[in-house]
Design goal:
Layout: E1 4-9, E2 12-17, E3 21-24, E4 29-32, H1 39-45, H2 54-69, E5 73-76, H3 92-104, E6 106-110, E7 125-127, E8 130-132, E9 135-137, E10 149-151, E11 156-162, E12 165-170, E13 172-174, E14 178-180, E15 191-192, H4 196-199, E16 206-212, E17 215-221, E18 237-238
Parallel strand pairs: 4-5, 5-6, 6-7, 9-10, 10-14, 11-15
Antiparallel strand pairs: 1-2, 1-18, 2-3, 3-4, 8-9, 11-12, 13-14, 13-16, 16-17
Helix pairs in contact: 2-3
Amino acid sequence: MSGAATFDFAGERFVMLADRALFWPARGALIVADLHLEKGSWYAAHGQPLPPYDSHDTLDRLARLAIDTGARAIWCLGDSFHDRDAAARIVPAIADRLGRQAAAAKLVWIAGNHDGLTAGAWGGEVADEWTRDGIVFRHQSRADETRPEISGHFHPKLRLSLRGRGVSRPCFAGDATRLILPAFGSFTGGLDVEDAAIAANFSGPYRAMLVARGRLLSLPCGRTAENDATADAPIAANRR
C-alpha cells in the first residue's frame, strides 16, 4: 500500500493510511470514523444548495481503500450518516452502493451521536461499541475507559505554519492507550488537535499523527508539548 505507515498500538500492529483511515491486518479490518454521508443534502434541505456528490465521493474513497487493503471487514465508528433523517434523503444509487459494499466486506456500524441506528437499513451489524482483542472501538472516547480505545467524533486537524503559510490537515490524535481518528467524510470540517475538547481525552501529553509520503509524522501535543518537543513518541512508527 502506498500512502501508509505501520505502527504499534496496544500490542497490535496497525497500518495508518494517508486517506484518514486505519487498517488492522490481523483482523482484515478497515476502520473509519465520521463519514457524515448525506451532509450535502442536509444543507440543501436547509436552504443552502450544494452539489449532491459528497456521499458518492466518500464511498468512492472507501471502496478504493477496501480494495487496496484487501479488507474483509469495514468498521465505521459512528456518525456514518449526517443526521437521523438521512434515510429519507438517500437516493437509490447511494442505497445500492451501500448494499453492495456490505456484500463485499462485513460492515459494522457503530452508533454515533448524529446517526443513531440509521445505518442498520443498509446491511451490516449495528452496535453501540465493538471490542476485539482487548481494544474497544466506539464513537466518542470515554474518560472512565481503562481499556485501549479507538474512537472518532472530534474530527482532529493539525494546523501548522510553514514558511509563513497556514497549513491544515486531518490527523490522528493518540497516546499509548487511546487513538482518535480523523473524519473520513469528504465534506467534513475539523477541530484543532490541541483544542481543549480533544486534550481532555488524554491524561497527559499525546501525539498528532498523519502519513505523508509513506512516512508517519508524529508531533507532540498537550500540556508538556512546548517543553518536550524531543520526547520519544509513545507509539512506535515504521516507514512502509
